[in-house]
Amino acid sequence: MKLLLVLLFYLVGTVLASPTIPLEETNGTPGDGRIIGGYEVTDSKLFPHQVGLVYNNSFLCGGSVLSEIFVLTAAHCVYGLLDITKLYVHAGTVFLYGGSNIQIANVSAFQCYEHYNPVNSSGDLAILRTTGFTLNEYVRPVKLPLPGTTWSPGTMVTATGWGRYNNSNTDLSGILKAADLPLVSGIECEIEFSFNFTDHMLCMYGFNNNVCKGDSGGPVIATGSTNFLVGVVSFGSIPCATTIPAVIINVAYLEMRRFISEVTGL
Ligand SMILES: *[C@@H]1O[C@H](CO)[C@@H](O)[C@H](O)[C@H]1NC(C)=O
Ligand SMILES: *[C@@H]1O[C@H](CO)[C@@H](O)[C@H](O)[C@H]1NC(C)=O
Ligand SMILES: *[C@@H]1O[C@H](CO)[C@@H](O)[C@H](O)[C@H]1NC(C)=O
Ligand SMILES: *[C@@H]1O[C@H](CO)[C@@H](O)[C@H](O)[C@H]1NC(C)=O
Ligand SMILES: *[C@@H]1O[C@H](CO)[C@@H](O)[C@H](O)[C@H]1NC(C)=O
């Protein structure tokens, strides 16, 4: 299926209804920290599906390698982006910028999930078509779950990203961080974010240990698996990693899986 270039309207500067905020980052500066809590990833072979999106020379979001050319991210990371020629993806590195095995690909087109709703973040998935990566031990596709796979509360997942590591400032992590977290019942997210939590979302809890701004679009894999994708980081609240959970998009959900298959053939 053909990827459409989605160019809608300029959204930078708008915010979702408090306390729901998207976790992309547009103006942070690299620091020496990471995700809130969690641990540093020093080996670039550990999360070889992790990519970083850079727009107009600023780090924007995380993402996952789906194949040599396709990257999965959150729709709110790219929706309304003005100039796709200013967007690139880096892979093969744990560093926010650079690294000896780094590969950089440009983005030729992207497609947001067709029912993505930028007001309430429903259906927050997008696929980028890139100029391509050379797959190796540092750059490897995620494994997608079987369509319809369900995840029960208590399932441990691992989120990775270069997002903010300290609620006191807006610095991004200079090195990739990971956090092992439990999924909790959707009711926990429904209460906090007062929307009707739907099956295409999963709720992830981590007091002092959770994703933050800049981690959006990034992978959440089954803990202990090398690269088995459970979800894509969507939104949470600021400050991060309080008793308020974060929301990820469930890639096994039939409708999300259909979208991925239709666009990528995977
Ligand atoms: C890119 O960044 C420059 C300098 O910060 C800014 O003036 C320009 O408007 C930005 N361009 C886009 C397309 O966001
Ligand atoms: C990506 O775009 C930049 C700037 O337009 C260009 O210099 C570079 O060669 C491109 N890289 C690839 C892999 O196409
Ligand atoms: C977070 O920032 C505060 C204030 O700058 C600092 O005191 C604290 O040590 C930082 N914490 C971490 C984990 O970097
Ligand atoms: C978001 O809004 C759409 C359109 O109004 C609605 O169909 C959907 O249920 C809403 N999603 C959530 C999670 O509230
Ligand atoms: C959730 O769904 C119920 C029943 O359909 C509806 O009355 C309520 O307004 C919805 N809440 C939100 C926040 O969309």
From TrEMBL:
Gene Ontology biological process: proteolysis
Which residues constitute the signal peptide according to the record?
Answer: 1-17
User: Which residues are in the Peptidase S1 domain?
Assistant: 35-265
Keyword Lipoprotein listed? The answer is no
Q: Which PROSITE patterns match?
A: TRYPSIN_DOM, TRYPSIN_HIS, TRYPSIN_SER
Gene3D superfamilies, A to Z = Trypsin-like serine proteases (2.40.10.10)
InterPro entries, A to Z: Peptidase_S1, Peptidase_S1_PA, Peptidase_S1_PA_chymotrypsin, Peptidase_S1A, Trypsin_dom, TRYPSIN_HIS, TRYPSIN_SER
| Keyword annotations from UniProtKB, A to Z | Disulfide bond, Hydrolase, Protease, Serine protease, Signal
Q: Name one Pfam family in it.
A: Trypsin
Superkingdom of origin organism: Eukaryota
Family assignment from sequence similarity: Belongs to the peptidase S1 family.
Q: What is this protein called in UniProt?
A: Peptidase S1 domain-containing protein
What is the species of this protein?
A: Zophobas morio
